[in-house]
Design goal:
Jelly Rolls, alpha+beta, about 40% strand, 6-stranded antiparallel beta sheet, 2 helices
């Protein structure tokens, strides 16, 4: 019985030691991939708006709400500031971007996939890609929207 156990242990050790992708090899391979990805990203030309100073960014008057400011962005994310006056709306729409909206000041009615909730200062909402959503300002409001990936249509 001990001989069989010893043979099994030896076979397992031989198998582990001769396996081409040992744990150390897997870790080393991931380190190399990570370094290659970092180099690829760092060598890419800069894209977007790296620095965004509020006083230097003119607000864009929107059709159904007061002002939109496109702040810092890169190809994978974008920060947008929106000012709403009472009664202003962001009409029902959808897009392929994930979005998080954060209310800095004010209050609004926000509808997401048919459910309407009140959002006030300090509240936020996550909008999954392709979710139908809209908003209506109840009072003067300032919002921050974060999109991923960036909204290409905002800078065309």
């Amino acid at each position: 019985m001990q001989t069989q156990t010893l043979i099994i242990v030896i076979l397992i050790l031989v198998s582990v030691l001769t396996t081409p992708l040992s744990l150390k090899a897997l870790i080393d391979r991931e380190k190399v991939r990570s370094e290659e990805r970092k180099k690829e990203i760092m060598e890419k030309p800069s894209f977007g708006n790296k620095w965004a100073f509020h006083e230097e960014i003119p607000g864009e008057a929107m059709e159904t709400w007061a002002v939109r400011r496109i702040m810092a962005y890169g190809e994978n994310m974008m920060l947008v500031e929106n000012e709403f006056e009472p009664g202003d709306t962001a009409p029902e729409h959808t897009h392929h971007h994930a979005q998080i909206t954060y209310v800095i000041e004010g209050a609004l009615k926000f509808t997401l996939d048919g459910e309407t909730r009140a959002l006030r200062k300090g509240d936020s909402v996550y909008i999954r890609p392709f979710a139908v959503h809209s908003a209506e300002a109840v009072e003067k409001s300032l919002l921050i929207d974060m999109f991923s990936p960036m909204r290409e249509d905002f800078v065309e």
